[in-house]
Amino acid sequence: MKKLFNFNDLFTLDLANNHLGSIEHGTNVINELGAIVNELDVKAAIKFQFRDTLDTFVHPDFKDRTDVKHIPWFIQTYMDKKGYEELIRVIRKNNMLVMSTPFDNVSVDLIDSLDIDIIKIASCSADDYPLIKRICQSDKPVIISTAGLNLSEIDKAVGMLREHNMDFAIMHCVALYPTPDGSLNLNQIDLLKKRYPDVTVGWSTHESPDDYTTVQLAYAKGARIFERHVGMQSDIKALNAYSSEPKHVKHWIAAYQAAVANCGSVNRPPYLAEEKDSLLSLKRGVFCSKDIKKGDIISEKDIFYAIPLNLEVGFDAGKWRNGLVADQDYKKNAPLNKDMLIKSELSDEDIVNNIMLQVRGMLNDARIKIGKHSDIEISHHYGLARFREFGAVIIDIINRKYCKKLIIQLPRQKHPYHYHKKKEETFQILYGDLEVEIGGKSMSLSQGDIATVEKTEWHKFHTLNGVIFEEISTTHYNNDSFYEDDKISTLKREERKTIVKNWEC
Predict the structure, then answer these.
(1) pLDDT tens, position by position, 246-303
(2) Three-state secondary structure call for residue 381
(3) What is 241-298 written as a DSSP string?
(4) Quick check: helix, strand or coil at residue 453?
(5) Are the beta carbons of 33 and 57 closer than 8 angstroms?
(6) What gap in Å lies between CA 495 and CA 491, rounded to an integer?
(7) Cα torsion through 192, 198, 200, 205, rounded to 10
(8) What is the Cα–Cα distance from 310 to 148, expressed in whole angstroms?
(9) Closest by alpha carbon to 472, among 450, 492, 490?
(10) Which of 411, 454, 457 lies closest to 434 in space, CA to CA?
(11) Rounded CA separation 119/138 (Å)
């Protein structure tokens, strides 16, 4: 069993591009911070940002542009591998860890070659699933930020990391630079801790450098990783408004143990327009790596990912699906048209993946854990395409003389009228609501309520807001469900069931 990294009480000092492309300046900053970290005896990491700026990250048509946000600065502060090797030696001499945020796949290769301790996934890349897939191949501890993501997107990213058995932590973050007091939303730390109780949660901060209260509030909320941008003034470029100088870092670290309450939204808030613009400026779009003819089936070898994303025409890397059919002729380097996503039908695999993503979110909300590598039964009485209307997800726990299942229905989902000849069953609601009709009698059930269905008793059920309930029964037999609708009754069991093997929540 691999040794897990202890994320607790880790201070991430994000040097990013504030080394200014200069080994000398970067060394001075690291030494100043190292002296503070060792004086206060805390665990800290210096973080870089890696982008293959001169090759793959920036679209070839934009490398010489000075009017596009970020690109000139990225190119100006570019540092080669030798430079990073020198700075890493200085970091380790100061008894600090090394961390890096990669923004493209090539940068993950660089992380591996430099043997960097921790990988950070930036908020703008948290739904960049091709990049996350590559990061998972590195088998290093991972910290992922969540600014601008809804809960479904966070669930998907967390699910990917879990499926690859990654050692990871989550950061609440607000992508406004600097972040005004009213937009801190520190109650999101509570939400993330509740939704992922076995995961360390942190706070990535962009408030004013001389704000020492917010770190105290974050700690009181349960955050155990703390991140801020750091740097020092230079003749080359003035330090930005959200980066802390060493004197600020000293006060910031010294203040983190004190804590008081600060209220934000208890639900996942929509991201602000300014935050969206900030994130979109770093999202990778999907572009053609060669000329493509209308009607061609497009695979991953036919595309590449790069910034800037043209959202008016194209779509971001996280929405890419293999096997899209070209809706028009495309020239090399052109963005793929987002209309293809709208017009293309989801594959059965995509539908199943979306179903299981929603199920994972409900189980997380309900704080229900299931056994690793469970077999899942997706019941779709009128086909997968109508699953959101009719169906249920069934998790088999045990089936002997007695049987136990977990049954999950998504909001407003229905299960058709049917009965069992051999099985008697009892439902107990664990989460959500269930409307049940048994033998012509209707009842509304909520958490903790119980209902029993006798053998040969007609019954159906549906939910308004989503439900998870236990079914305790006598032995379950296949082909013991008899439906009122002949369209269902004539289907073979394998035609109305999809089995997901070894699913891990």
Answers:
(1) 999 999 888 886 643 343 455 666 667 787 778 888 899 999 999 999 999 999 999 9
(2) coil
(3) TTPBPHHHHHHHHHHTT--------SS-PPPPHHHHHHHHTTPPEEEESS-B-TTPEE
(4) strand
(5) no
(6) 6
(7) 0
(8) 18
(9) 450
(10) 411
(11) 9
What's the CA gap between 136 and 170, in Å, rounded?
15
pLDDT for 269 equals: 67
The secondary structure of 393-409, three-state, reads EEEEEEECCEEEEEEEE
Structure tokens that stand for 22 in this block: 């200069």
Closest to 468 measured CA to CA, from 415, 417, 427, 420: 427
Residue with tokens 């998972």: 136
**CA R_g for the chain:** 26
The two tokens of residue 481 are 């469900």
Contact 460, 381 (CB under 8 A): no
Place of tokens 């008793």: 457
Residue 370's nearest CA partner among 403, 396, 400, 402 is 396
**Which residues, listed in sequence order, are joined to residue 418 by a DSSP beta bridge?**
459, 483
Query: May I ask the CATH architecture of the domain 349-503?
Result: Sandwich (2.60)
Which of these, 374, 369, 381, 448, lies nearest to 409 by C-alpha position?
A: 381
In CATH, the number for domain 284-343 is 3.90.1210.10
Q: Please, what's the b/e burial string for 185-204 (b: 16 or more CB within 10 A of its CB; e: otherwise)?
A: bbbbbebbbebbeebbbbbb
Distance of CA 198 to the CA centre of its chain: 15
One-letter amino acid for residue 281 of the chain? S
Per the CB < 8 A criterion, the answer to whether 440 and 457 are in contact is no
Residue 61 has φ and ψ, to the nearest 5°, of -75, -10
Please give the CATH architecture assigned to the domain spanning 10-279: Alpha-Beta Barrel (3.20)
Distance CA 463, CA 484 (A): 20
Burial of 235 (0-12, 13-18, 19+ CB in 10 A): exposed
Scanning the structure block, which residue is given the tokens 């053998």?
455
Write the pLDDT tens digit of every residue in 417-464. 999 999 999 999 999 999 999 999 999 999 999 999 999 999 999 999
Residue 387 token pair = 């699953």
Model confidence over 207-245: pLDDT tens digits? 888 888 899 889 988 999 999 999 988 877 778 888 878
Query: Domain boundaries in the chain?
Result: 10-279, 284-343, 349-503
